[in-house]
Design brief:
By secondary structure, the chain is an alpha/beta fold. The protein is built from 11 helices and 17 strands.
């Protein structure tokens, strides 16, 4: 009878990797503080809980439910702190409680805003937008990448490629052993000191070769070149190394056409129902027909004003400053402010489902104590 193998324990490091897959930290704004803010990477995780704001009520809930890992969308530690004290009335006092109870804290914030399927994409979907573009593109803050090109006799291609892959080359996202191959002919004339693997020295030779291309990170480049040279049959292999530019990726904010045009009032009511927001505010003519949405969850700030706005545009955000509201009115367009918390909260459910699918051994839930700090009379 075969023994049942117990599932591998999930540790904090595993959950962090899963979150990094959902919302790469490289997408976060430079001023933000994202990632693992507190916790032991080697500690075991059984229960994860999501919230927008880490409050004492959320920590009470987490302790009661024996949560090991808290995903707080807004970073509770934003500016440098000199101490963590239980008596503090700031968020550092809340973090102290989590540390004492062994609860890890992780924040995604603007990384999740920019990520595919993140906060802005969720609101775009609720608006009825099928295709979106970001309000800005950013450079991917990943390790420097290079393209390594080597010319190999056709019969030795797999051996050389295998050596390069084993050394760390050929990784693109979730794919490995990636390469491109082009067939052609190479020529050479070896002087009397050479020892050609094919052909003869002192004679012009034409050889069937494969141009083998792959990509490799800066940290893996030296060992990949060494592995390639050790497996290559030529005494003087020809190869090239090209530095690759960082790829522009979708940044923060979204813009797209609505599937159906509607009045500002109809549109705002639809979003209020979809987000369950009780604090919706609008700017503009309630009867104005709108057909395009500019989405910036949280606080819109100046982002929507980077593009030309028309009377048929609506800015969808969490909160709008007074003078920005006046500017929107002067431009003749519209805006819907769902409340800061309500514009971000809808993303927690799909993120929770994605995390559970990636790590089925853990229990994932959304805090019920997390709530909008603003209430209606």
């Amino acid at each position: 009878m075969s023994k049942k193998t117990s599932p591998r324990k999930v540790c904090i490091k595993d959950v962090c990797r899963a979150f990094e897959n959902i919302a790469p930290l490289s997408l976060a704004q430079d001023w933000d503080n994202v990632g693992l803010l507190a916790g032991d990477e080697a500690a075991t995780v059984r229960r994860v809980m999501h919230c927008i704001d880490l409050t004492h009520a959320v920590v009470d809930e987490a302790i009661r439910k024996k949560i090991d890992f808290l995903h707080a969308y807004h970073p509770p530690l934003f500016k440098p702190v000199g101490s963590l004290r239980k008596s503090s009335d700031g968020t550092d006092g809340i973090v102290f409680r989590c540390v004492r109870k062994g609860i890890a804290i992780y924040s995604t914030h603007t990384a999740l805003d920019a990520a595919e399927g993140g906060t802005n994409d969720v609101i775009a979907s609720l608006c009825g937008i099928r295709e979106t573009q970001p309000l800005e593109y950013i450079d991917e803050h990943s390790a420097n990448m290079f393209k390594l090109v080597v010319f190999v006799p056709e019969e030795k291609t797999e051996e050389v490629a295998g050596a390069m892959f084993s050394a760390g080359a050929g990784h693109i996202g979730h794919y490995s052993n990636c390469s491109y191959r082009t067939f052609g002919q190479g020529s050479f004339f070896g002087d009397p000191s050479t020892k050609p693997a094919v052909g003869k020295k002192g004679k012009m030779e034409m050889v069937d070769e494969v141009r083998l291309e792959t990509i490799v990170s800066s940290k893996d480049l030296p060992q990949t070149v060494t592995a390639m040279l050790s497996m290559h049959p030529y005494d003087e292999p020809a190869y090239d190394i090209y530095a690759l530019q960082k790829r522009p990726v979708r940044g923060i904010g979204r813009i797209g056409d609505l599937q159906r045009s509607s009045s500002l009032t109809q549109f705002a009511r639809k979003l209020a129902r979809a987000t369950q927001s009780k604090n919706v505010q609008i700017v503009g003519d309630q009867a104005q027909e709108i057909n395009r949405a500019i989405i910036v969850v949280g606080a819109a700030g100046s982002l929507p004003f980077r593009i030309p706005l028309t009377k048929n545009d609506v800015i969808v955000t969490g909160e709008i400053r007074h003078h920005d509201a006046l500017s929107i009115r002067r431009k003749g367009c519209c805006a819907v402010a769902l409340s800061h918390w309500s514009s971000e909260r809808p993303a927690l459910q799909p993120i929770s489902e994605r995390l559970h699918n990636m790590l089925p051994a853990i229990q994932v839930e959304i805090s019920t104590a997390d709530c909008d700090p603003l209430e209606r009379l």
